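Design job #97: recover the sequence.
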């Protein structure tokens, strides 16, 4: 059956255009120290060169290494280090405080004087991945792939509405069960699963305001689709990695 599935995927136009192949990196890596509590250590990366959407052209992806909680921040296409720092404070520090250490690639925005001096003054340690070894920051790279796969499937033909899809994508990602922790990121950070919009919609039925009913129903439908797509993308990524890991240990 596996051969038949692989043959079918090779002939599927959508699969060949939108989905990426994931393989276990060769060689042995030294794992990063385990975080002690949420937002103690984070990873940070950019998804760049996106079509302009509502004035944005890139996404800053911030992942808490302890809970896997993710924040997807739309940014200008040519986001400067100063703008990146401002968005980081607005969307991360405002809610969770200053992390003890930040892991990122060697993007000039992260290695420049403004970024390094700013977090030196704040007491955060900056750690940078080695060139040509993105797997050091593999957690963010993996979430980037999940987010890109989701956006490719739900973005419109002109690809100009991806910024409006980020809120549902982020909320859906919060609800995904993690193999590493056995819980969802939201549950680890908040202590419980959130009540989702479609829960109220199914319980209460149609209300006196058609517009309100449509809004709740739309949120519930988009949330269900997003969770389904993210779960499928996660399984596709885990499958090849797990097979390669099993074969390497034989």
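Job complete. Output follows.
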């Amino acid at each position: 059956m596996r051969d038949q599935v692989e043959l079918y995927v090779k002939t599927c136009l959508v699969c060949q255009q939108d989905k990426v192949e994931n393989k276990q990196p060769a060689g042995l890596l030294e794992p990063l120290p385990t975080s002690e509590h949420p937002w103690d250590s984070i990873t940070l990366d950019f998804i760049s060169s996106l079509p302009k959407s509502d004035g944005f052209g890139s996404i800053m992806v911030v992942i808490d290494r302890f809970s896997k909680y993710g924040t997807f921040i739309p940014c200008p296409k040519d986001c400067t280090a100063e703008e990146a720092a401002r968005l980081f404070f607005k969307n991360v520090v405002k809610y969770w405080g200053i992390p003890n250490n930040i892991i990122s690639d060697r993007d000039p925005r992260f290695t420049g004087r403004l970024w390094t001096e700013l977090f030196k003054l704040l007491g955060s340690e900056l750690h940078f991945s080695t060139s040509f070894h993105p797997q050091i920051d593999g957690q963010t790279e993996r979430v980037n792939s999940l987010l890109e796969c989701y956006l490719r499937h739900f973005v419109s033909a002109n690809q100009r509405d991806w910024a409006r899809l980020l809120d549902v994508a982020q909320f859906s990602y919060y609800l995904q069960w993690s193999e590493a922790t056995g819980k969802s990121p939201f549950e680890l950070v908040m202590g419980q699963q959130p009540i989702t919009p479609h829960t109220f919609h199914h319980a209460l039925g149609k209300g006196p305001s058609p517009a309100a009913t449509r809004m709740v129903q739309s949120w519930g439908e988009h949330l269900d689709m997003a969770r389904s797509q993210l779960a499928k993308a996660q399984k596709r990524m885990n499958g090849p990695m797990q097979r390669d890991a099993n074969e390497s240990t034989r």
